[in-house]
């Protein structure tokens, strides 16, 4: 059994900081669960284009408000606590936070912990980070 | 892109009620994400023995307080918002809620939606529910 505390993990290299967001990786590929699990904070009044070409991701809003735009269709979905979105088509999307959003994220395949977002908004496939 | 709302899903058969807990399945095997994602509420002042012999599960505490006991070792870990546990050894465990706990749960392999907890605390393997 693995037990981890978000607040303690934020003091370690499990916390990855980027421009307008940060992510704390509570489970990574090395934990051998078959998925990774992250708590991600999208900072207030920021907007980000992401495109996980090599991963499936689900995101559950724990707190905060904003929106997700499906960049293939232009459809905008509000985000508030209790909303989950899942990028089952590797959907390119724009995530916008009106207030700081705290999101519980699952990735398949699991993130290794070495990824950064590339210029195209994707994470590298496992083969490029292993 | 899949977008689902916990509050709406609780009015559908995505909500499964059991004795002392309920679980709303926001993602199931049929969504083809490779994992399932559930928001589970453990009711106040209840205690439950679970043993997912056929699944890996991670659980993140969104709200509420309680504890998890590893029944192989007797070790008790407190649960509060920000604590995540992962049953990487298919650990048999006792989950106890002092106050209602809201938990974000990921399962691999994904739950099909047809499982119930069996007398031994497990979910049936996929081959028995498909």
From TrEMBL, chains A, B:
Q: State the NCBIfam families in the record.
A: PRK13290.1
Entries under InterPro entries matching the protein: Ectoine_synth (IPR010462), RmlC-like_jellyroll (IPR014710), RmlC_Cupin_sf (IPR011051)
Q: Which reaction does it catalyse?
A: (2S)-4-acetamido-2-aminobutanoate = L-ectoine + H2O
Q: In which pathway does it act?
A: Amine and polyamine biosynthesis; ectoine biosynthesis; L-ectoine from L-aspartate 4-semialdehyde: step 3/3
Which HAMAP family did the record assign? Ectoine_synth
Known EC number: 4.2.1.108
Q: Which family does it belong to?
A: Belongs to the ectoine synthase family.
Cross-referenced CDD domains: cupin_EctC (cd06978)
Query: What Pfam families does the record tag this protein with?
Result: Ectoine_synth
Q: Does the keyword Transferase apply?
A: no
**UniProt keywords, alphabetically:** Lyase
What task does this protein carry out?
A: Catalyzes the circularization of gamma-N-acetyl-alpha,gamma-diaminobutyric acid (ADABA) to ectoine (1,4,5,6-tetrahydro-2-methyl-4-pyrimidine carboxylic acid), which is an excellent osmoprotectant.
Which N-terminal residues, if any, form the signal peptide? none
DNA-binding: is it a keyword of this entry? no
What is the recorded name of this protein? L-ectoine synthase
Domain of life per record: Bacteria
């Amino acid at each position: 059994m693995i037990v981890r505390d978000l607040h303690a993990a934020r003091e370690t290299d499990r916390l990855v900081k980027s421009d307008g967001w940060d992510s704390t990786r509570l489970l990574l590929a090395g934990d051998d669960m078959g998925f990774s699990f992250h708590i991600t904070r999208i900072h207030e009044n920021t907007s980000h284009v992401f495109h996980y070409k090599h991963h499936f991701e689900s995101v559950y809003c724990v707190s905060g408000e904003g929106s997700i735009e499906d960049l293939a269709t232009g459809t905008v979905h509000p985000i508030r606590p209790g909303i989950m979105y899942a990028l089952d088509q590797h959907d390119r999307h724009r995530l916008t936070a009106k207030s700081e959003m705290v999101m519980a994220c699952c990735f398949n395949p699991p993130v290794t912990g070495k990824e950064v977002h590339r210029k195209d908004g994707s994470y590298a496939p496992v083969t490029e980070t292993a």
